[in-house]
């Protein structure tokens, strides 16, 4: 079914006066193009104006699908009195954090250092030299709930600027020194003990009742679950697998999942995964596809494979753009209310679902006559419900006197009817800019799912996205560009762009064995090393010729999105094992050494990096299949490998067009006895080659060291 028409991606209209943001391409900046605030985009024009007028700068950072960014825009930036105060006291700059993550990371670090908190919208007050002296997040127009308002705050800052500017400069200089402080490099070498410690940290924080880690709010952090799957496969410890299964099941049943249209919302505001923050982000869908796919490989549980397929169905239906790549996100709000698109009253469901199925559907989706959204979340949507599945379907079926199979069939019919009914609602805005890094994650997810679930269409979608980025998001000198929208490509790529797209290309190579993708991954990684590399090891976020804002950061922390260094570590190990070129693994070891102190201080905050470390430390597995690409005997061996959960493993097809720099011992240039042959080496030991898919499966399943 085709998606319904969408509202425009920007909120500017010809009837309203526009400010300097009207010429930008970012949907977030265009949302503010009709504000009475005299916004500037980030650039020298704004800083020159601040110096000429002897004014400080008000920097506001957010993104287009951010609920509280919308709230602050409507309450504060559309308020004529507030706008007049801001325009008089400051030069005002608006930044889209997704377009300029380099700017956001610097000033978010400043906010966290000053306030011990952070978030968006991010509000920074700074000098024309880009040095912050005051930071906070959401600011209402006038004071309330114990929070200062702009009407009170702006005159105070203006007064200090005019009468005691030295005090502000002192604060700024101290903050600049804090931000520029180089994180400690080196430390004891990272050994397997740090992986063990990360597991125990997660185990202690695990929510035994609801799944997930810690208290509310809860973010999915799928890479943490992927780390635990690897720990379980390596150690055999069943608790690691239990934590993964319980968390993935709870998230899938909870309100954080869109049970009508599929896909996950950004995070849960409560501990039991019921009340989501309703925006949908491309990166969350990608990482969750990978986590559910790997969980299916590890357990065979069809709930996990079904969930991966459903997320992909959502992505291909609602986020796929005509160019072949993917939009960044969908908003939390529609019609001025967060979650309105996703909430249902009992009466709305009764009007859509066949009469005889209504009691069962209401039970299955835990619908209350009084609603659950306003009671749980303080929402204003009276009697509306967040659909969720607190009980297993079989249990609901028994209560309704029907079999599990019949229950599944009826619920799917009801879901389809609700989806059709939902198409007449006003959709949340879609941020349709294409980001190279987030698309790299989705390419990796689609390729991984294509291989594991036997779905070539997923690989085709990944291929189209990869080809678009590799051909349409490059500068004249070949370097990667970060953002594309409406034919305009801009902003030199960050380390995330190179690392995440490299990950996608490696997964796409293993899903298709098209060596063009392996070649492209090698080229991107060469550029990452050349332009972002730190001689001490690891990678800076910005290239060696990028704008410097106070400092050059080198991120390692794996938050909602993993860091470039974490992804790069895994890429480097895989490239070394795939090509036989030892310099890639040497780069990986140098990176691991450089970040050892930070990782060792908080192992569970670096779970994706620890996935790469696990592969680096080994024992690891290398599989080379020698055969004719596309032939039945070759496909049988490839299929045997893809059906298994095999972390710390690389798979290459030594067919026509692929030449490994350093062949594994005993591998010939042609299949043994004219039949496709699999060669498997684990650690320092190579197994007997085989042409029998069953024997290959048995060999790969043996032992914990996959």
What does this entry show, briefly?
This protein is of the alpha+beta class and 706 residues long. Among the domains are: 20-180, Glutaredoxin (3-Layer(aba) Sandwich); 215-431, no CATH class; 618-706, Glutaredoxin, CATH 3.40.30.
Structure description:
Among the domains are: 20-180, 3-Layer(aba) Sandwich (Glutaredoxin); 215-431, no CATH class; 618-706, Glutaredoxin, CATH 3.40.30. A hairpin with a 2-residue loop joins β10 and β11. 49% of the residues lie in helices and 10% in strands. It has 706 residues and is α+β, with helices and mostly antiparallel strands. A five-stranded mixed sheet has the order 1-3-2-4-5, with helices on both faces. The longest helix is centred in the middle third of the chain and has 19 residues, at 404-422. The relative contact order is 0.08. The protein is built from 27 helices and 19 strands. It is globular and about 85 Å long.
Protein traits:
27 helices; 706 residues; alpha+beta; five-stranded mixed sheet; 49% helix; Glutaredoxin; disordered N terminus; 10% strand; four-stranded mixed sheet
Strand content: 5-15%
Proportion of helical residues: 40-55%
Low-pLDDT sequence parts: 1-14, 375-380
Instruction: Tell me the radius of gyration.
Output: 26 Å
Distance between the termini: 41 Å
Q: Tell how many strands the DSSP assignment holds.
A: 19
Structural class given helices, strands, pairing?
A: alpha+beta
How many alpha or pi helices?
27
Largest sheet: 5 strands, mixed
Look at the structure and give the mean pLDDT: 91
Overall geometric form: globular
What topology, given as strand order, has the largest sheet? 1-3-2-4-5
